[in-house]
Amino acid sequence: MSSPKLRLDVVTIFPEYLDPLRHALLGKAIEQGILAVGVHDLRDWAAGNHKSVDAPPLGGGPGMVMKPEVWGPALDDIAQGRAGAELDSAEAHRNDRLRHDDVAQVAPRPYEAQDEDRDKPLLLVPTPAGTPFTQRDAQAWSREEHIVFACGRYEGIDQRVFEDAEKKYRVREVSIGDYVLIGGEVAVLVIAEAVTRLIPGVLGNTESHEEDSFSDGLLEGPSYTKPRVWRGLEAPAVLTSGDHKKVEAWRREQSLKRTRAVRPDLLERAALSDDDRFMLDAREVETRVDVGDKRVVAKQVRRALKKAGYRADRIERDGATLTVRGRTALALDEATRVVANAVGAYEGGDTLGNFARLESPE
Ligand code: 6GU
Hints:
This protein is of the alpha/beta class. The protein contains 13 helices and 13 strands. The strands form four sheets. The chain has a five-stranded parallel sheet with strand order 2-1-6-5-7, with helices on both faces. A hairpin with a 2-residue loop joins β8 and β9. It is elongated, with a radius of gyration of 29 Å. 6-chloroguanine binds next to β5 and β7. It catalyses: guanosine(37) in tRNA + S-adenosyl-L-methionine = N(1)-methylguanosine(37) in tRNA + S-adenosyl-L-homocysteine + H(+). One of its GO terms (cellular component) is cytosol.
């Protein structure tokens, strides 16, 4: 069989904790030959009858620190592919077959700009003291050939292990969130799954991760399936309208509004179009301007308003007063000015906001 795209090695004192790596999505990737996984018991590198892997911290304090004399040789062996039966089948990571990306003509995923030696495997050290793991990391690491995870328990691993490992690895200390786990094993499951599912061929359909939450910096909105009415609850009508443009616009709006509601920090960093801003900030407004005896052509006014960011639903005239109702993200005085401009009236106008809410208090 040809060599897999990605080899993961995990070093832990609880190898059985990593069993889920072989199941479900990742198990399938292993069967397909896309992924290879080696799980290694750190104690295989421990000396003496007690196979001790830890010792009290220098300088005192609670807990235990994992010993460099055990970790050093373990990471040396795994970097060279000298550890464990699973590694035998992984022979050099030759790239002698067409990559799925070439076959499927998928644009290469971006890799963080860096001048480091990409021939070295990546050593990931899960720790709450690491840099936050993000979807961007998952994208980048899905292009790696060999990732080794060093799972620490107790108070961590002697820091010199990582200093020394720089000779053979690119070393990253990573955290999966602002909370503390007992050890790195669960974090490895999290990272391995996030990374592996981005390898082409692991998920059947490439589009399905391009639309993921986070890949455009926004959260995904809600999803619905059949039946259209369930327990008296209707799915949003737009989704069964057959109007794909409307469906896309609705989904974008849901995504923007959910992100604003639960992760405003993400929204601040997202690249938003004028349409996005409109969806987020537009509210019902009603504008009245004095047009005197000017001739007003509703169609032209509507077009001019749309250009200015004011979407008019209704334009009515009663003598000298023109009333426009619609939606805009503009400030109220700005909305008035825009309407006055559109009709060529320069004085006497006013805009009321949040009209829908004022009119229908439910
Ligand atoms: Cl990556 N490891 C551990 N042990 N605790 C964590 C973590 C990682 N991320 C958050 N808490």
